[in-house]
Structure formats: C-alpha cells, structure tokens
Amino acid sequence: MSAPRVGVLALQGDTREHLAALTEAGADAVTVRRAAELDAVDALVIPGGESTTMSHLLRELDLLEPLRERLRDGLPAYGSCAGMILLASEIVDAGVPGREALPLGGLDITVRRNAFGRQVDSFEEDIPFSGLDGTVHAVFIRAPWVERVGDDVEVLARAAGHPVAVRQGPVFATAFHPEITGDRRVHHLFVDSLRR
Ligand code: GLN
Q: Is residue 177 annotated as part of the catalytic site, yes or no?
C-alpha cells in the first residue's frame, strides 16, 4: 500500500516537528491550512502549541465546522498537547469567553487545559505506553490531563495518576510531545494504524 497522506494542521504550533516525525514514520506528510487541503488528506495531526489561538484561526479560516464534520465521519487523527485539547469533546478551563479553546469532538474525553501547568510548568518523565516496549520519554509543556474518558476510550499512558495518552478507534492523543524527542514510535503507531 502506498504511504498514507497525513495532513498536519499548520495554523500555529510545532507543525514542522510533526511533518518530520510523520515522514520518518512512513507517511506522505503535508500541511493543512484550507478546507480543500483538509479534503485531500487521509488523516490529520493537530500539533502542540496554543489551543486558544488555533481555535481562533480555525474559526477565522472557516475550518472549524469542516473539521468537526470530518471527525464525525471517522477521520483518523492524532493530537499532541494543544492537539489533545482540541480533539476532546469537552474542555475544562478552556480560556476567556470569545477566545476560548473549542472542542472538535474526535474523542469522548474531558480534558483540563494547563492542568499540570498550574503545579509545574513543564517536566519530563519516562512512562510506560500501552503497545510499545519499554518506556516513552514524555515531555510535558503546560500540558493538559484527561479528567474523564468515555466507555470507548482506551487509556494508553498515565502520569501522576492521570491519563495522558488515549485512543478511541482511529483517533489518538497525547498530553506530551513525542514530536520533539526524536523517538518516532508514537508516530509509527499512528501511521501504522492507517494501513490496517
Ligand atoms: N497550554 C497549551 C494550550 O492550552 C498547550 C501547550 C502545548 O501544546 N505545549 O493549548
């Protein structure tokens, strides 16, 4: 099978790191900034960055509803950190009204934005990750955690007792940033899931 075409939402955040990680994991990685570009991909990655800014831009660029609709139709997706926040169905501490982070609803989870950030802004930890051998070096930067998971959601990793990596069918999310560590196993897991 030819390489799956994976878009990286390129409005703000660490787009370049995901493009590199996806390419190394065997995907045909392209940027997505417009609805026509969204239509042309088999899957989408939402990078780490700032979920409120990305939400604002999604609305400005008329991408918010098209993206919600594709996720409803089963678009495979992976979000890291801010991307996890956006893929959630519910966001706690979403930000100031009018400039808040907007849920896209790819995952039946409730996330708390900046959850770890209130205790310690950023930290790194080696954590077990379901389906991967050994541990994953997880870098958390003003990261969210998951406060509620729906029945169909699988928890893949935890930190400080909270789910920090989840999967619901074709949609994955991590509260940390595998794209910045050089370890491509999480991106591989996602890209390989697209080939099945
Ligand atoms: N705190 C950021 C947000 O709310 C996420 C941080 C990150 O992606 N590293 O979007």
A: yes
pLDDT tens, per residue, the chain with 196 residues: 689 999 999 999 999 999 999 999 999 999 999 999 999 999 999 999 999 999 999 999 999 999 999 999 999 999 999 999 999 999 999 999 999 999 999 999 999 999 987 667 899 999 999 999 999 999 999 999 999 999 999 999 999 999 999 999 999 999 999 999 999 999 999 999 999 7
Kindly give the number of the ligand 1 atom that is closest to the alpha carbon of 47.
Answer: 8
Residue 154 phi/psi, 5-degree rounding, is -100, 130
Main-chain phi, psi angles of 93, to 5 degrees: 60, 50
Cα separation of 29 and 25, whole Å? 10
- Topology classification of domain 5-195: Rossmann fold (3.40.50)
- Domains in the chain: boundaries: 5-195
81 is catalytic: yes
Catalytic residue from among 18, 177, 187, 188: 177
State if residue 114 touches ligand 1 by the CB under 6 angstroms criterion: yes
**Other Cβ atoms closer than 10 A to 75:** 19
How far, in Å, CA of 139 to CA of 141, rounded? 7
Q: Is 137 known to be catalytic?
A: no
Q: Is 102 in the pocket of ligand 1 (CB under 6 A)?
A: no
